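WARN  no MSA supplied for this record, continuing single-sequence
INFO  ligand: zinc ion
INFO  echoing inputs
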Amino acid sequence: MTLAIDQARLASEIEQLATFSDAEAPAVTRVVFTPTDLKARAWIKEHCQEAGLTIREDPVGNTFARWSGQDPNGPVVGTGSHIDAIPNAGKYDGVVGVLGGLEAIRALRASGFRPKHPIELLIFTSEEPTRFGIGCLGSRLLSGTLSANVASELTDNEGITLEDARVRAGMKGSLEQVRLPPAYYKAFVELHIEQGPLLEREGLSLGVVERIAAPASLRLTVEGAGGHAGGVLMPDRRDALCAAAELILALETEAKATGAIDTVATVGICDVFPGAVNSIPSKVRLSVDVRDTSLERRNRVLKTLEEACRAVEVKRRVAIQSELLNADAPAESATDVVSALRQACEKHGLRYLSMTSRAYHDSLFISRIAPVAMLFIPCRHGYSHRPDEYAAPEDIARGALVLAETLAALAS
Ligand SMILES: [Zn+2]
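INFO  complex generated
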């Protein structure tokens, strides 16, 4: 079997997909179920059909492009990623795994390979939390991590529910039907840009992901008392922003105090009310994101943050409410899939790094129902979720080649 990845075609398709965007180039904004997202989906489906694949779309818009194997009812060997992009993002996050996966399948078909198991490309719906506030919607539903009932009630900023949004986008059936039957997959492999600097630093073009860190996110609301910035004297104040500042620094201290490099904590959003120069902040909303490869350590940080909230409430006479949005367990890659990836790298004389994914991906949720592993390629300076995100065409092509080789091994 000789596998030929068409690097130029793959690079040009990534450029074409980037033109489906609600931001000015080179930035890409593609939010789930917007007209732009739907056009991009239609474009990809057409390309999958041209490649000879059969399309199935589930009720939340997860899109499966299938190459039936000699045993069409056998468990599936899957690959894929997402094409939605947060506001003002780049061209490569998710897209490399979708178009790279398609190119890998094309290379396998052109080589004359005949899979025993079906091979499927999967385009996940809404990996990004932009619209409905929760990431990996499609894979959470596929794996049963999120129930159809809870999902259908999720709302966007305009009050539109996921249920309405998906029906308006033309998705048929009921969300109950999204969950995959047990043992649907034989294996699942996701190709993705690293979104960190390690591969570039090591001068390597491939990373085999052995575990995915456990994410948790919550929303904190701090309520104090507002007032005139001149009139209210310092001893009388219950400034919500000062209280929030203490929480942000407490979180940073706790994350550093675990002593583990894998513990990371971030406050990415701080909304201040009423937000006027001469008005004491009466209410602040913070977003908190904590991740770790150890569930126990991650949960300890959450617990100490909770304690910090109680202490700040007393000290500053404010009320702090915390709402846990998600707290997921980490995932270990499946040894079979990892060794298939390693062997594929070795077969082509390519060196790789064994690594941890600190960002989470749809594979984290698919790992609840299938043996999973991921393949990373470098992105320049580790930049991602920004317009200057960049992955070199030769790295993308190498990723697609190793993916094709891995799919072949798993589907034989
Ligand atoms: Zn991604």
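The first strand starts at residue 28 and ends at 30.
INFO  checksum written, moving to next record
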